[in-house]
């Protein structure tokens, strides 16, 4: 039975890929007006179905409506509006200047759609991370096949409806399913693969892409640090870290993974963390599990993984400063702050991706910088300080996909910035113009008129005239 289903999906994938291959060639002459029309249709669908989007994501892991509106819907609608506003500018061929040895020629960069694209999305922002990259694919003129996460079935079903009601199958298609479906898709020679997920699966994707030399954008994860300098506004920093860490129940790729706080303000910072946590998630004092503003863990497997991280840390000497309560039936995991950490704990090696926050201290900034530089490069780095020189120093002496001073997570909303990681946290960039570039081939175009080779002196049989030209090139340029 399973084999028959597998064969059906296989033939459906084969057929869809072929259709997309043909369409992607036609798309080379697609007008900007056509691309804008597709984006406007997408925008209208989202506006008309906002209630259904909320319901689907909430059904998957009780994400609060306000968080859905901000981090799933607004992020995507602003991405679409930004593309609609800028697409004419992005598509325009870019003239380049002509260096002296190239006099007599004329050159420009032409943006052509890469062609067929595959978008593989994770579960943690299931709408945003499937549709956000689709906006860039459409803006660039690519066809797209989306493979949403199997862990958020309500959102996946909604995405299927969105695609069916908005696009012609030849432009955008969607395949739901488990890992096997992703693997069948990955056998196809896509022109570009845009993957969002874990570094471990990112490596599998890159290997599969290598078979066809498909280009890739890998939006991965990692351990993003937050540094609290001795002179920072502790109350403000604590509030921002509590929000950045516990929004979406800590299941955010750019959540601060752990905190490095200057030893002189550690106790005051921990007190501020506790105060801010209670203010946000337990204002009535009835317990955080009663809060409607706190999401749940996506499934039992992840809940168990987080419980194991906590147990391993406690076994090796970590102390719970706050939290630790778990209700398995409700998939509730209380926001938990840990101190007394050491490097042999799993929690200090793996991306946490849940509501556990280790707080470590450092003596001077050099120590914090060295600690970060010993680990794989993070997706984001947050620096809370009142000293601009210290901020500048940390940003210069560490490497991360993004960096924010005196806040966290917010850079995701800034469409003018490239979003993505570096090495272990990702390859390539997304959002706005950078997303458009990810799905575009930057074609080098030159027109010869009377340039270097026009009178053929550089061709064999080599003679005096050719030698003279080469000699002067070497001498003067
Ligand atoms: N950089 C970003 O923008 C960003 C955003 C969100 C999440 N993330 C990262 O994603 C991870 C969490 O999401 P997840 O658990 O859904 O990630 P995941 O890597 O387990 O899965 C992501 C997608 O890949 C597919 N997949 C899983 N195993 C596969 C395999 N062997 N072959 C082919 N496809 C496979 C899944 O079906 C899913 O659609 C975290 O590491 C997080 O940091 C990164």
From TrEMBL:
Per the record, the domain of life is Bacteria
Q: Which residues form the active site?
A: 219
Alphabetical UniProt keywords: NAD, Oxidoreductase
Spell out the molecular function terms from Gene Ontology.
aldehyde dehydrogenase (NAD+) activity
Q: Name one GO biological process term.
A: aldehyde metabolic process
- Entry's Pfam families? Aldedh (PF00171)
Q: Name one GO cellular component term.
A: cytoplasm
The family database entries (InterPro entries) matched by this protein are listed as:
Ald_DH_CS_CYS, Ald_DH_CS_GLU, Aldehyde_DH_dom, Aldehyde_DH_NAD(P)
PROSITE patterns for this protein: ALDEHYDE_DEHYDR_CYS, ALDEHYDE_DEHYDR_GLU
**Aldehyde dehydrogenase domain sequence ranges:** 28-445
Q: Family per UniProt?
A: Belongs to the aldehyde dehydrogenase family.
Q: What is this protein called?
A: Aldehyde dehydrogenase
Q: What is the species of this protein?
A: Arthrospiribacter ruber
The taxonomy runs:
Bacteria, Pseudomonadati, Bacteroidota, Cytophagia, Cytophagales
